[in-house]
Amino acid sequence: xxxVTQTPSHQVTQMGQEVILRCVPISxxxxxxxxxxxxxQKVEFLVSFYNNEISEKSEIFDDQFSVERPDGSNFTLKIxxxxxxxxxxxxxASGGQGPTFGSGTQLSVL
Amino acid sequence: KNEVEQSPQNLTAQEGEFIxxxxxxxxxxxxxxxxxxxxxxxxxxxxxxxxxxxxHGRLIATINIQEKHSSLHITASHPxxxxxxxxxxxxxxxxxxxxxxxxxxxxxx
Lengths: 110, 109
Hints:
The complex is a heterodimer of chains A (about 110) and B (about 110).
Chain A: E1 5-7, E2 10-13, E3 19-24, E4 31-37, E5 43-50, E6 53-57, E7 65-68, E8 75-79, E9 88-94, E10 100-101, E11 105-109
Parallel strand pairs in A: 2-11
Antiparallel strand pairs in A: 1-3, 3-8, 4-5, 4-9, 5-6, 7-8, 9-10, 9-11
Chain B: E1 4-7, E2 10-14, E3 19-25, E4 29-37, E5 43-49, E6 52-56, E7 59-64, E8 69-74, E9 83-91, E10 97-99, E11 103-108
Parallel strand pairs in B: 2-11
Antiparallel strand pairs in B: 1-3, 3-8, 4-5, 4-9, 6-7, 7-8, 9-10, 9-11
């Protein structure tokens, strides 16, 4: 069964550093998403991406965040100047309605 | 008021029991999604609904668009069903997703 692959599974960074979270979506999918889940809280939508551009973003997705599809397979989330409150599990998903989720990247900002 | 609410928040059941988890929402939607989050954190899609009812194995999901309500039923529950079940709605803009707070289910042998 096709999978969405996320790397790394865990990322530890110092406050103020930049991190890039990577995702390999399912190859024939056209819609890509990033979500996050702060420990003990509900999953939150960050951004959706279609046709090589952002189609929708939440209030959380401010100038600190950016997404790219640098080649035909990868989909990345960049967080600039990380803050303590960016510590969360970040999920990538691909597909239309009924997306397939990756296993997540646990980001810890110290 | 949250746009997507779930009940109950927590649920403990004996193995074999019939379980119902409810989701209500207050916004216009194009579809509703039931997800299962395992204790390790991984998320699995269970159902995508825009009307009626869907069944997969021991899981049944229903939606009433007029009442803005969906239910997830688990028949003959098993300890491996223990997980957090999350309702998520796709708003009419299609891409925007709003997640419910989740229902934590524990099935005891």
